[in-house]
Amino acid sequence: DADVTQTPRNRITKTGKRIMLECSQTKGHDRMYWYRQDPGLGLQLIYYSFDVKDINKGEISDGYSVSRQAQAKFSLSLESAIPNQTALYFCATSGPGQGAGELFFGEGSRLTVL
Amino acid sequence: AQKITQTQPGMFVQEKEAVTLDCTYDTSDQSYGLFWYKQPSSGEMIFLIYQGSYDEQNATEGRYSLNFQKARKSANLVISASQLGDSAMYFCAMREALNFNKFYFGSGTKLNVKP
């Protein structure tokens, strides 16, 4: 099983619908992140969390919200989806003392908003 | 200014040859880390190699090496003896000590390995 699991892996929805992307991890890391990937733009940080009581906005948080339900769970919500939120979304984790402190990514959630 | 710049949107390399993927970065921090990730067509992000700003030697991991030129603020990825399975997108990323939990990514380079 993957260390960082995202659900759903693919989702097609309509404008105005509420969407939740879920992430769970078994790595025991405190830090969790949500990134968005658009073609030609690399990865942009949406939100990140250091622990259950700590949530921080990233570069592109408008239109998104997050919830850190437990150390191992971090969900991303689109309250009212719009077409330009069509993208590939990644959850990632990192932990102190873990190698280089690199990010460990989930397999991605591809979201299409019609 | 962009923190990470990858100037090669796409590259081709012949199988078994070496290839260099360019990455330059911008930071005023003295302590930072540089990372390379591979993204195959299946979409997952795979960590390849890491270089710390205070590391005196270039990092190596198997066929991957990082050509770190601190004065020039470049951190190029060198893949030796390219294989067909190396065809993928490659992303350079940086993390600064002053904002340890924030990673900056470049726009990526798509590498195609020709048989």
Descriptors for this entry?
heterodimer; A: 114 residues; mainly beta; 4-stranded antiparallel β-sheet; 11 strands; 54% strand; globular; B: 115 residues; 6-stranded mixed β-sheet
Characterize the structure shown.
- The complex is a heterodimer of chains A (114) and B (115).
- By secondary structure, chain A is an all-beta fold.
- Helices cover 0% and strands 54% of the residues of chain A.
- Chain A is built from no helices and eleven strands.
- In chain A, the strands form two sheets. In chain A, strands 2, 4, 5, 6, 9, 10 and 11 form a seven-stranded mixed β-sheet that branches. Chain A has a four-stranded antiparallel β-sheet with strand order 1-3-8-7, with no helix packed on it.
- The model of chain B has no long low-confidence stretch (mean pLDDT 93).
- Helix content of chain B is 0%, strand content 55%.
- Chain B is mostly beta strands and 115 residues long.
- Chain B is globular and about 45 Å long.
- Chains A and B meet through strand 5, strand 9 and strand 10 of A and strand 5, strand 6, strand 10 and strand 11 of B.
The profile of the biggest β sheet of chain B is: 6 strands, mixed
Element pattern of chain A in H and E = EEEEEEEEEEE
* Rounded radius of gyration of chain A (Å): 13 Å
Report the count of strand segments of chain B.
12
Q: Which segments of chain A are poorly predicted (pLDDT under 50) over 5 or more consecutive residues?
A: none
Overall geometry of chain B comes to globular
Q: Tell me the Rg of chain B in angstroms.
A: 14 Å
Query: What is the typical, i.e. mean, pLDDT of chain B?
Result: 93
Number of helices of chain A: 0
Binned strand content of chain B: over 45%
Report how far the terminal alpha carbons of chain A are from each other. 32 Å
Annotation field: number of helices of chain B: 0
- Uncertain ranges of chain B: none
Mean model confidence by pLDDT of chain A: 92
Helix content bin of chain B? under 10%
Q: State the order of secondary-structure elements of chain B, H for helix, E for strand.
A: EEEEEEEEEEEE
